[in-house]
Amino acid sequence: MLRTLAGLVPTLLLLLTAPVAAGDAWSELRPLLFGDRPISETPGVIALEAPYRAQDAAIVPVTIVAGIAQTPEHYIRTVTLVIDENPVPVAAVFHLTPGLGRATLATRVRVDTYTHVRAIAETSDGRLHMASSFVKASGGCSAPALKDAEAALARLGRLQLKQLPGQEGDRQAEGLRRLQLLIGHPNYSGLQMDQLTRHFVPPHYVEDIEVSYGDRTLLTVEGAISLSEDPSIHFYYRPDGARQVAVTVRDSEDMTFEGAWPVEPDAGS
Length: 269
Known about the structure:
Layout: H1 2-6, H2 9-17, H3 25-34, E1 39-40, E2 46-49, E3 60-66, E4 76-83, E5 90-96, E6 105-109, E7 115-123, E8 128-135, H4 149-155, E9 159-164, E10 177-183, E11 206-213, E12 216-223, E13 232-237, E14 244-251, E15 256-262
Parallel strand pairs: 1-8
Antiparallel strand pairs: 2-3, 3-6, 4-5, 4-7, 5-12, 6-13, 7-8, 9-10, 10-13, 11-12, 11-14, 14-15
């Protein structure tokens, strides 16, 4: 989806700088992204957690909470994360599989100005469901990187996979494992200025992430400039005997980074 949207970026930028009513960017974005398909906002399928007032606009935590289990019969197939007022509003598209067990995800994003953040889930029956949250933050897309250029380059492509404890009382996650993927990458937006040269830093960001478990894909992510520096993704998976989780990351400069980590074959091991 993001590759298709790449050709729409000039149009999106024009729309977002046009004199529309404050907070009305969604009315322009919706038909571009989803046409005239109905989008349900009834609770139960998906929820979105984000701070009302962000401490740091360049690293805003966002959690997409799935209200249904991932089963072969019925599951969340994609989640599109939209930040209405950002220069490139589609922050990421997550392509999901039943092997996750649960489609709850967490990541960190840049927020450029006060805006609604939206998660639009498409279920396996083709229906769309949306949850949104208003976030007060500004300047996240143009904020200087937290690390200097040399430090950023030294960390470029460094991948980490951490096993996280399950959340107490979360019955939907019973029997599942929760992981955090950390990607060392400056994820330059193209809107940041080098404080020494006063030139804009060229965009260089994570474009594609693929996570596999054993011999099958768990999820893929199409990224863009609205993901934060050093992107982070929390996700679940259902152990079924495979012994390895592998990750492949490709960025906008066609650089590829790979990693693989051993895992216990099942929850009882």
